[in-house]
Design the sequence.
């Protein structure tokens, strides 16, 4: 690495530390009090996608399928590691629902045990409030061969099968 | 490095680096095993889904100095009803936490392993609330600290036993009572569980004393482990109705 590149990299790191903050609404990483997604008036505020980490927002945004807003929990329930509901941003999610007139919450936590436990916990909390609570589907990666799929993922894909399109 | 094959139940996982995990397993032949599972966080990993907590697997591992390395794994059981139901998942995770605490690395534990597999299987199908309690009382017996329930743990006096104190090691009579006051049905249920009648207790359906038996079992286990159980504190006691 040349000296100029090293200096540029160092400046970039300093700039990131100085200019990025957590959005006060959804806790995504942003440059101001509200992140670009929360500040965008064209986004549908009635649908909130709940994710574990800001990096998950980047992944969902890449799909270009979702036009709602996000909520970053900052982790998933993992009691064995001492992470309970108080350690993730559940309270902040509940506080957003009424003022923002949220009608649907999409639980987009990781498809592992902690993510599933978090999703079930949130569903139990949110459904009595009359919200439409959905969970992302899980199944096979596009472009992969069925014979290489593991039995658990394939089982989930079969479980969540849908009517074939014609 | 030597290669070995064993069964295991995944107790917990921790992220390692970019796409790996350290998986902690309870195995019958090698005790508690901590092994690196490479690349399992990638969606294309074939063994990632198999090495989730609660999965009962067979695996092929390399012995390492500190951490082993999982190279292959096949699923023997991964009950869907445990993962898809919070009321079953919380006791299941509590069992994993307890085994994680009592199991010792590289020390075979066939009895404890069989108990864990059996308890998880029962939890997946049974409607009884006493599966976790049964597991805890049985575990204390396996650990050599079975509660004294036949007579007063302090003076050896006969019934009625009216209290439970984990510090004293069991139930206490009216003269010696201290700790938690308990109902007669609780004493009877704990006696039957410890005495080998667990299967029938679970088949009987709900008892009035179920929650007390569970509470005492967790109290006794916490006393034995000398620490609070995190799973119960976070999810059972906080309740799932609100935070």
Sequence:
């Amino acid at each position: 690495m040349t000296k100029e590149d090293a200096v540029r990299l160092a400046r970039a790191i300093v700039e990131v530390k100085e200019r990025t903050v957590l959005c006060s609404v959804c806790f995504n990483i942003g440059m101001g009090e509200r992140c670009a997604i929360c500040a965008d008036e064209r986004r549908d505020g009635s649908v909130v996608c709940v994710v574990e980490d800001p990096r998950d927002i980047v992944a969902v945004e890449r799909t270009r399928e979702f036009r709602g807003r996000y909520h970053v929990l900052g982790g998933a329930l993992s009691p064995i590691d001492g992470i309970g509901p108080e350690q993730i941003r559940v309270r902040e999610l509940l506080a957003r629902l009424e003022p923002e007139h949220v009608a649907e919450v999409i639980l987009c936590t990781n498809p592992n045990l902690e993510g599933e436990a978090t999703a079930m916990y949130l569903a139990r909390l949110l459904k009595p409030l009359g919200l439409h609570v959905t969970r992302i589907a899980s199944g096979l990666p596009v472009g992969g061969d069925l014979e290489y799929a593991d039995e658990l993922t394939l089982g989930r894909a079969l479980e969540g099968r849908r009517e074939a399109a014609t | 490095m030597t290669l070995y094959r064993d069964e295991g139940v995944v107790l917990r996982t921790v992220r390692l680096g970019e796409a790996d995990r350290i998986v902690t397993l309870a195995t019958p032949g090698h005790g508690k095993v901590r092994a690196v599972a490479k690349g399992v966080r990638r969606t294309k990993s074939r063994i990632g889904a198999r090495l989730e907590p609660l999965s009962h697997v067979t695996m092929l591992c390399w012995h390492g100095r500190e951490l082993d390395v999982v190279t292959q794994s096949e699923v023997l059981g991964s009950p869907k009803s445990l993962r898809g139901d919070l009321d079953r998942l919380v006791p299941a995770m509590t069992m994993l936490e307890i085994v994680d605490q009592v199991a010792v690395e590289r020390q075979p534990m066939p009895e404890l392993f069989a108990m864990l597999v059996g308890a998880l299987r029962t939890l997946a199908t049974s409607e009884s609330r006493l599966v976790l309690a049964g597991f805890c009382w049985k575990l204390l017996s396996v650990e050599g600290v079975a509660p004294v329930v036949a007579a007063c743990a302090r003076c050896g006096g006969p019934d009625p036993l009216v209290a439970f104190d984990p510090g004293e090691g069991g139930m206490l009579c009216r003269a010696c009572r201290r700790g938690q006051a308990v109902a007669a049905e609780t004493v009877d249920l704990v006696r039957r569980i410890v005495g080998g009648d667990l299967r029938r207790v679970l088949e009987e359906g709900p008892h009035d004393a179920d929650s007390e038996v569970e509470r005492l079992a967790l109290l006794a286990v916490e006393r034995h482990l000398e620490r609070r159980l995190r799973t119960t504190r976070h999810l059972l006691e906080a309740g799932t109705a609100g935070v």
